[in-house]
Amino acid sequence: AAITLAQSALDQLPGERNLLRSFAQLVLGMGHLVAGRTANGLQLLEQLLRHQQRGNPLVIVKVFCNLAEYNAKHGRLRKAHDLYTQALDLANVGVDPDAPLAVDPLTGLGEVVAMHGDWDSAARYLTRSVELARRHGQIGELNGLISLAAVCTAQGDPDRAQALLERAMRLAQRFDATEIDDLIVALAQARLRLEQGNLEEVEAWAR
Questions:
Q1: Which of 33, 35, 40, 189 is the most exposed place for a label (fewest CB within 10 A)?
Q2: Is 157 helix (H, G, I), strand (E, B) or coil?
Q3: Distance (Å, whole) CA 145 – CA 48
Q4: What is the pLDDT of residue 192?
Q5: 198 pLDDT higher than 50
Q6: Exposed e or buried b per residue across 107-116, where buried means at least 16 C-beta atoms within 10 angstroms of its C-beta
């Protein structure tokens, strides 16, 4: 459905609607990657990067972050780290280093270094991401909180992890974008309780 809608948008949007066309091409490229049509997806995203080199930095940051996420999911952590770093550099070039564009690259970098077991660096990236997202009122704060809670658990601080997840749940309920957000936080809380050995609480929640 995403591929069809994005292609339809590209077919119908006039050439001067550059930003909307760029986002439609971004969705189309990622749709092809998710569907396993890697060559098509990468071609669309690389083409988008070439066309946007002097264009809207928001689009370029989003492309870098989506490519980084794709590489991370396929175990190419070094490549993912490099792409997130490029996105962060671009987000901070010529603007306030606290710019909201930095939220997603910071979250991504935190998650990638966590996969390497570098918990301290992960905590720093994710804490910064959460602070920026909260300052700018972004839903991206939710992802940062959940990832930071997982890092705190790995660091042996379940109390802080629980506090972060409770904050994430309040945030999910306040934004009320979808019920999926609430479920993701609830699953993270259940995982934390399992790691603490609180099986009865998890069973009660599952019912």
A1: 35
A2: coil
A3: 31
A4: 57
A5: yes
A6: bbbbbbbbee
Full DSSP string of 87-100: HHHHHHTTS-TT-G
Task: Pick the closest to residue 91 from 118, 122, 56 (CA basis).
Answer: 56
Answer for the pair 27, 64: CB distance below 8 angstroms, yes or no.
no
pLDDT (mean) for 185-192: 56
Q: Which residue has the tokens 């957000």?
A: 181
Cα dihedral sign, 108-124-139-16: negative
Please report which residue ranges of 52-118 form alpha helices under DSSP H: 57-73, 77-92, 103-115
**pLDDT confidence band for 206 (50 / 70 / 90):** very low
Query: At 74, phi and psi to the nearest 5?
Result: -100, 15
Q: How far apart are CA 126 and CA 109, in angstroms?
A: 8
Two tokens at 53?
A: 């080199």
Among residues 111, 66, 114, the alpha carbon closest in space to that of 86 is found at 66
How many CA atoms within 13 Å lie on the side-chain side of 98?
7
- Classify 66 as helix, strand or coil: helix
Give me the torsion for CA of 74, 171, 140, 99, rounded to 10°: -150
**Cβ 195 vs Cβ 158: under 8 Å:** yes
Tokens of 149: 């809670």
Q: What is the pTM of this model?
A: 0.76
Q: Which two tokens stand for residue 176?
A: 């009320």
